């Protein structure tokens, strides 16, 4: 067994042990005893209501984008003006939550904290703040990573030619088909029995097939099996089709913009982990971006990159086709609506 396989095997065992410990260790921190817990909501409807109320109390502008599902599922976009009326193209922070629906619990909580922090326009330091709440509202409401069409919308920001190319990649298709029995269900999930079966499959996959191959087959996404895990779709999701023109409308023109797409599950617990894509920006640019983010969040000191104790780490991740931002932190310049 390779060193990487051993490491992943240890991680799986540790995760199971942590789950058991969490189950037996009592209730998690609650509000008001833990201030950070006060920003977390019980579900999609409650989170959306709190987000909208916080936007209005901050004198922000709210834009509501309704998904064509007929289920009152919306992406809510809040715009907080920079506070510098003389600037026509202010630097802009775009903060997105819930690209992977169930992960919106954390992203929504961060946005409520930001709305409280930036209630006073002077606190925005000349930066326009755009908050996108619940990019995948279906996933948030139903506790799923994927959207109403089983699409992982973090692997969906592609054009028609890119969809066709990825769908026809023999290596990608072959790798997925070789391992899909490990993670795709053949029938409805049976508690306990299927939990144990999944653990057995995971251990077998790590020990025999190799952790790298299993990870690549899943995480890289696939575009040929609509009912399988990590399906990237064959066209833009409804969320992207609604959101892209709205961002061009409300976040442009901008002299520069930083987009943060909040996810959970990577990096140490309770630590902000910035994941730049090296294909998009080099290490120097990533460092510059981190300093800019911390300036906006009030953590930078004298323009220097914050020290590790301020709670930020870098995690360099392999690029995945169709990611909503190509990275969780990305410098970009948005075109004006007329261009």
From TrEMBL:
Cross-referenced InterPro entries: DUF2817
Keywords assigned by UniProt, alphabetized: Signal
Signal peptide start-end: 1-26
Keyword Signal: yes
Species lineage: Eukaryota, Haptista, Haptophyta, Prymnesiophyceae, Prymnesiales
Keyword Signal: yes
Protein name (record): DUF2817 domain-containing protein
Name of one Pfam family that matches: DUF2817
């Amino acid at each position: 067994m390779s060193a990487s396989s051993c490491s992943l095997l240890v991680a799986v065992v540790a995760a199971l042990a942590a789950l058991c410990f969490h189950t037996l260790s009592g209730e998690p921190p609650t509000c008001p005893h833990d201030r950070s817990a006060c920003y977390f909501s019980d579900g999609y409807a409650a989170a959306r209501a709190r987000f909208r109320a916080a936007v209005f109390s901050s004198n922000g502008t709210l834009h509501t984008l309704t998904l064509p599902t007929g289920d009152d599922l919306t992406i809510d976009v809040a715009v907080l003006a920079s506070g510098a009326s003389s600037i026509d193209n202010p630097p802009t922070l775009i903060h997105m939550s819930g690209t992977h629906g169930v992960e919106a619990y954390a992203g929504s909580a961060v946005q409520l904290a930001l709305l409280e922090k930036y209630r006073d326009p002077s606190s925005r330091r000349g930066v326009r703040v755009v908050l996108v709440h619940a990019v995948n509202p279906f996933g948030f409401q139903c506790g799923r990573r994927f959207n109403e069409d089983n699409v992982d919308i973090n692997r969906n920001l592609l054009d028609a030619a890119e969809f066709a190319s990825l769908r026809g990649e023999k290596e990608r298709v072959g790798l997925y088909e070789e391992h899909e029995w490990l993670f795709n269900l053949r029938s409805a999930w049976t508690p306990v029995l299927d939990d144990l079966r999944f653990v057995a499959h995971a251990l077998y996959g790590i020990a025999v097939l190799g952790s790298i191959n299993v990870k690549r087959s899943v995480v890289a996404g696939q575009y040929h099996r609509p009912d399988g895990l990590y399906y990237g779709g064959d066209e833009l999701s409804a969320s992207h089709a609604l959101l892209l023109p709205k961002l061009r409308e409300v976040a442009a023109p901008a002299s520069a913009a930083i987009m943060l797409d909040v996810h959970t599950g990577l990096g140490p617990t309770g630590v902000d982990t910035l994941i730049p894509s090296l294909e998009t920006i080099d290490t120097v640019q990533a460092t510059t971006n981190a300093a800019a983010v911390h300036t906006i969040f009030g953590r930078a000191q004298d323009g220097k990159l914050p020290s590790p104790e301020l709670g930020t780490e870098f995690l360099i991740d392999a690029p995945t086709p169709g990611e909503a931002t190509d990275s969780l932190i990305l410098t970009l310049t948005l075109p004006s609506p007329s261009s």
